[in-house]
Amino acid sequence: MAKTIVMGNFKGGVGKTKVSVMTAWEMVHQFGKKVLLIDMDPQGNASTLIARTAGITELQNTIFTGFQTGDLKNTILEVEENLHLIPASLTFKNLPKFLYSKFETEIEQVSYLKQLLEPIKEDYDYILIDVPPTISDFSDNAMMAADYVLIILQAQELSLEGSETYVSYLQFMADNYDADIQVAGVLPVLLRPGSRVDESTVERAKELFGDDNVLQHFIKHLERLKAWDVTGITDKDQHDRKAHQVFIDATEELIKKIEHFEEAGKYE
Question: Alpha-carbon distance 163 to 250, whole Å?
């Protein structure tokens, strides 16, 4: 049964999409997992990066089709044998209108993705969800469907505040809709490694969320990550390998944290 992880922060531009894609990528290529990446952002940046990497020029069926038909299976794109994608497109911006017209109650509206994932969870080890950085039907559905959240913390004050708001909103979802989601960890994304501001923000995050909850492996600012937006993900030289290693380390730590939570849950 797949463990579902949403990448979270209510501050835009913190690196959620890149972390979503690269975590899925390393889970498959380095750790032998079968992964489904779900793009719930109408901008479709995660879909674009994966498609560019795989040489896919057209994304026919997207997540909105699955929501409209009540079946996500026909929207799943097999990028590789163990890496699958449910892509997004601009039409998905109409999700709120669709949910309000289809369902009468709020709990039905926010739980629709969870319902749609049930038939396919047995097919994967992990399901990763990339969402817009907004309090919206997109994030509500992702939270309700997810087992875990990985909070992406860019090392700046507004990102830290966005992380705090995200955790508070998780509690709201738990109180009002019985959302059952665990914070797997906080992953710092450094703007300038060695910067006092970056280091200070990470230390404040440890105080807020607990030292054990902040991942030891950070995502460092690397120019190669920007290049991948243009070329797709590559593994051709030492710069590529250095960039991959950053995500391999963080992904390994995330997997171990989730395995620890799962093992502890068996004995509760």
Answer: 18
- Residue from 196, 4, 183 nearest 86 by CA: 4
8 Å CB contact between 140 and 176 = no
Cα atoms in the 13 Å half-sphere on the side-chain side of 215: 31
Amino acid at 123: D
At residue 224, what are phi and psi to the nearest 5 degrees?
A: -65, -30
pTM, to two decimals: 0.95
Domains of the chain, earliest start first: 3-266 (3.40.50.300)
User: What is the rounded distance in angstroms from the CA atom of residue 210 to the CA atom of residue 26?
Assistant: 26
| Cβ(242)–Cβ(214) below 8 Å | no
Two structure tokens written together for 232: 């797709």
* Burial annotation 222-250 (CB, 10 A radius, 16+ → b, else e): bebbeebeeebbeeeeeebeebbebbbbb
Retrieve residue 29's tokens: 């290529």
Each residue's pLDDT, cut to its tens digit, for the chain (268 residues) gives 999 999 998 888 778 999 999 999 999 999 999 999 999 999 999 999 999 999 998 888 999 999 999 999 999 999 999 999 999 999 999 999 999 999 999 999 999 999 999 999 999 999 999 999 999 999 999 999 999 999 998 877 888 898 999 999 999 999 999 999 999 999 998 766 667 777 888 888 899 899 999 999 998 877 888 899 999 999 999 999 999 999 999 999 999 999 999 988 755 5
Contact 262, 3 (CB under 8 A): yes
Cβ(67)–Cβ(39) under 8 Å? no
